[in-house]
Amino acid sequence: MLGGGWRSLGTALAALGTGALLRAGPAQLRAVFLHTEHEQRKSKTVAQVDMKVELLPALTDNYMYLLIDEETKEAAIVDPVQPQKVLDAVKKHGVKLTTVLTTHHHWDHAGGNEKLVKMETGLRVYGGDSRVGALTQKVSHLTSLKVGSLNVKCLCTPCHTSGHICYYVTKPNSSEPPAVFTGDTLFVAGCGKFFEGTPEEMYRALIEILGSLEPETRVYCGHEYTINNLKFARHVEPNNVAIQEKLAWAKAKYDSGEPTIPSTIAEEFTYNPFMRVREKTVQQHAGETDPIRTMGAIRKEKDNFRVPKD
Ligand SMILES: N[C@@H](CCC(=O)N[C@@H](CS)C(=O)NCC(=O)O)C(=O)O
Ligand SMILES: [Zn+2]
Ligand SMILES: [Zn+2]
């Protein structure tokens, strides 16, 4: 049942003490093992006829995503912070890696670019910020590019960083849902910190740009923050049943080491407080009547939020 083996048992004992470990329940044990041995986070493949997305857990709570065009077997990697893991996945799937899609310049997303282009030559490296390592193609809002037969549309979503890009992926004439890679702009049930932007910019990013995508679009975000985000969402809207149900589901996923990614744009509108700033319930919690002022207020509150244990 528990992954991790003796190495992580040793680490867990050192961190907790034998007594605490013996008193811990299965969920707590799983948490201890995952935190001390985060290699145990499981990967996952979302397979459609036209495109495949392999979720590759990286660092403590980041995700890299291998995007495969099934028609040509060409592939792109989103935020390859751990290049060797990327090349292992490329080999496993037998695909040709041609493209790097960088969401933003922060180290936990762009920090593997330089190494990856040395290990694998000829890659096109896309990003919206000159601070992105090994950048070969600087993109702007609505720049289009191709990965095999897939269309990728770049969406400028400044706020977390000024050069943040989300990548929207569609297959021409397909009836299957599109995918969007949202980096640190939109998380499942949350959003990124406003390091280089304003509440107005995050409103434009979440509501006007990402919120206008097809509702069934799969959302692949930069971090596994879902449980903490939903605990904040519950604090904002204690009577929202969608939040309670998603939190119970996310806890079960976490306990078995599985990702809570992807969600959909339609789902985000039901439980993500930052996508719900036009709702009276969220505005009342913030003591505001304007959606952009509400955005600013709940982001500030989350910056200082102490996440409860349950
Ligand atoms: N609160 C984060 C701390 C790390 C952090 O600040 N992460 C950045 C992205 S690298 C962020 O924007 N987090 C959004 C948030 O804390 O709501 C966590 O849940 O571990
Ligand atoms: Zn970031
Ligand atoms: Zn990040």
Please describe what this structure looks like:
With 310 residues, this protein is an alpha/beta fold. The chain is built from 12 helices and 15 strands. The chain has a 7-stranded mixed β-sheet with strand order 1-2-3-4-5-6-7, with helices on one face. The chain has a 6-stranded mixed β-sheet with strand order 8-9-10-11-14-15. Strand 9 and strand 10 form a beta hairpin. Bound molecules: glutathione (GSH) and zinc ion (ZN) (2 copies).
How do the strands and helices of this protein lay out in sequence?
Layout: H1 5-16, H2 18-23, H3 26-36, E1 44-47, E2 51-58, E3 62-69, E4 74-78, H4 83-93, E5 96-101, H5 107-110, H6 113-119, E6 124-127, E7 137-138, E8 144-147, E9 150-156, E10 165-170, E11 179-183, E12 186-187, E13 190-191, H7 199-209, E14 218-221, H8 226-236, H9 241-255, E15 263-264, H10 265-271, H11 280-286, H12 291-303
Parallel strand pairs: 4-5, 5-6, 6-7, 11-14
Antiparallel strand pairs: 1-2, 2-3, 3-4, 8-9, 9-10, 10-11, 12-13, 14-15
Bound molecules: glutathione and zinc ion (2 copies).
The site of glutathione (GSH) has 10 residues, from loops.
Signal peptide: 1-24
Domain Metallo-beta-lactamase: 61-223
Main location: cytoplasm
